[in-house]
């Protein structure tokens, strides 16, 4: 073995010669320290502001450094990351972080990521990871049961909603268009997630082939407008092939009329994909049980466990009523060039290779997070947590309706609501001034370090938006955030 350039004995060096390894005692010491850092963060997340930021110049000074030719002490590096790097950004699990669609993660899920990384778990080919593959298949079955989907549905875990939407729409394209994109048309609302437009682009559709219709007053895809457009396109010789319905739009939490859209797609022999990245979890609860029939009649569904199922990133999932259609699109045998070395990994008998069902061959064991969380806490705890988020949104809406300076714009749907601050009296009625005021209030509230509320746009006007799905959030946290909004609005008067 080549001696260390430093001349230190192996046991004193961060890495031994010829190996990327540490002494056992040092691995245990660093591992214990890492767990202590995780537990401390989970215990104390509410003690810090919900957002911490640093400017590009500051971060460049802190983190832009030469390639390290020699190693450093691992514990010191972990401490540096935990103190100076990883906290910079939105703390999505903070009980007063109401921005975007926050996620909370959980401790068993964090341990699942550690274990799956250490065991190099790859649920791709059965030969490569039979145990990890079975874990993913079991977790998919649990998701199917949680959402009330019929037997036969299947799918796989992916990075998030964007890849889930792309995967489902790729199967829809191949099933309905058979490789010919001429005249193809895909339909959604303008309230659909941007990943739908990106998926259309990646699938070879130009912008004119994605028809984004204006929503109705409830911010939902309008079935009448959709039907009229499909029928007009058919008369024009075009080829409508799929509709994307959104279950919980990101701006307002609106739910497109799933039953009516299903009927339209059945009548026109089109694919219905439901983007339920956030809102599909509503079906876990008694309040959302009415959604189950509609979900089961769709062709495909997106759900992100790293949203309302409280998992760390990345954990998205695509589910399909006829999973063999995924294999028709992504099966390795379809795309082999000269890859004889992959032949030993082909599935035999009743084995399942999950890399035949999606775009990734090298796949992390994302499912283990949800599997270990469900095994640790039980499905009932998840149902209670989703219900809690719904009750928080109801509480926020009631508080807003009770206050003369606040106006509820869109009521609570899937743990999301929007509202505006309205100055008392006749301080201003100028729409643009009121829009600017909402932006100012958002920035002012965030600057306090006590809560994070951002803005969105509804029917052309700027509104404040809250997403209330954190199980650690209390009604008092909601009240505190709304009081901060009122204080911020009042400090801007007179206008």
From TrEMBL:
Q: Which superkingdom does the taxonomy of this entry point to?
A: Bacteria
Q: Does the keyword Lyase apply?
A: yes
InterPro entries named among the record's database cross-references: Aromatic_deC, PyrdxlP-dep_de-COase, PyrdxlP-dep_Trfase, PyrdxlP-dep_Trfase_major, PyrdxlP-dep_Trfase_small, Pyridoxal-P_BS
Entry keyword set? Aminotransferase, Decarboxylase, Lyase, Pyridoxal phosphate, Transferase
The cofactor named in the record is:
pyridoxal 5'-phosphate
The UniProt entry, under PROSITE patterns, shows: DDC_GAD_HDC_YDC
UniProt GO molecular function: transaminase activity
The keyword Lyase is annotated on this UniProt entry: yes
Tell me which PANTHER family the record gives: GROUP II PYRIDOXAL-5-PHOSPHATE DECARBOXYLASE, MIP05841P
Q: Which family does it belong to?
A: Belongs to the group II decarboxylase family.
Q: What is this protein called in UniProt?
A: Aminotransferase class I/II-fold pyridoxal phosphate-dependent enzyme
What organism does the record attribute this protein to? Answer: Streptomyces sannanensis
